Amino acid sequence: MGKQPRVIVIGIASMDIRGRTRDTLVPATSNPGTVRLTAGGVGRNMAENLARLDVPTTLLTAVGDDPFGREAIAQTAAAGVDLSHVHHTAEYPTATYVAVVDTDGSLAVGLDDMGISAAITPAYISAHRHLIRDADVLVLDGNLHPPAIRRAFSLAKRYRVPVCVDPTSVVLAQRFVKYLDRCAILAPNLAEAEVLCNCHIYNLTDAAQAAQHMVAAGVQLALITLGEGGVFYATPEGSGHIPAIRCEIVDATGAGDALTAGVVFGMLNDLPVDEAVRLGVSAATLTLCSPETVSRDLSLDALYQE
């Protein structure tokens, strides 16, 4: 048997403070509900999802010299992610994300403190270029600063390593417009896709056109997540739509990260694109049904059962 595929993820590791209201959210006042503290961050979430699918995964990130940093490291290491190259710094606090979730599991408001992303510098990435050289896939999260993104793409090109990108947010998606021709996998949600394609998406036909636009620009696999509408995907060989799996949503946080990780897993194992995307939808569903940012029930068996 050949070596196991190895993934390098470069992105944010945070601690998430997530509250869910017991009743419909009432703005500008205190709302009764529940509050949970869990490790999060787009890059970290994708790394944990992959590790739970038994993919050897190394996370390049930065954490502060504080209790949140130690807790994020502990939770992530427990899932099997290689954290031996994490940058520990006293210059910034560990990234923090605060989310308030309504009774239907949808995000009512979110607030992030990602200043520590400045510590994930081009020099830090270059110092670990040997990891990128030996990787089968490099995964990037949109919180990286533009110089770090540029260095990561440059090294990936030098070593011919395919790159998977999660644009992360509408504001951050713009950072990847110039790199469409270097993305093996690009996984925006609907709003992020509008930024990447400079268009408006109102229906599935529009989503199809946006995905095909990304492919025409050089993306090898474009995924546009549509929430309850499922996922539309396109490649140079064809396109398709995978419907969402109906479920009772507990918390939508991290679902997109799980979907991307599931697709990466499928592509690493040479599965047909349609099956890889279905695995991604299954991973997202498991996350939607979990109070955690990454479902502790995630496994390959659970994906196919879902």
Structural overview:
36% of the residues lie in helices and 23% in strands. It is of the alpha/beta class and 306 residues long. The protein has one domain: UDP-N-acetylmuramoyl-L-alanine:D-glutamate ligase (3-Layer(aba) Sandwich), CATH 3.40.1190.20. The strands form three sheets. Strands 4-1-9-10-11-12-13-14 form an eight-stranded mixed beta sheet, sandwiched between helices. A four-stranded mixed beta sheet has the order 3-2-7-8. Strands 5-6 form a two-stranded parallel ribbon. It starts with 6 loop residues before the first strand and ends with a helix. The mean pLDDT is 94.
Using the alpha-carbon principal axes, give the shape.
Answer: globular
Q: CATH homologous superfamily?
A: Ribokinase
- What's the number of structural domains? 1
- H/E order of the elements? EEEHEEHEEEHHEHEHEHHEEEHHH
Average pLDDT for all residues: 94
Q: Helix count?
A: 11
Estimated radius of gyration: 18 Å
Poorly predicted spans: none
Question: What is the topological layout?
Answer:
Layout: E1 7-10, E2 14-21, E3 33-40, H1 42-52, E4 57-60, E5 62-64, H2 67-78, E6 87-89, E7 95-101, E8 107-113, H3 122-127, H4 129-133, E9 137-141, H5 146-159, E10 163-166, H6 170-173, E11 185-186, H7 190-197, H8 204-216, E12 221-225, E13 231-235, E14 238-242, H9 255-268, H10 273-288, H11 300-305
Parallel strand pairs: 1-4, 1-9, 2-7, 5-6, 9-10, 10-11, 11-12
Antiparallel strand pairs: 2-3, 7-8, 12-13, 13-14
Helix pairs in contact: 1-9, 7-8, 9-10
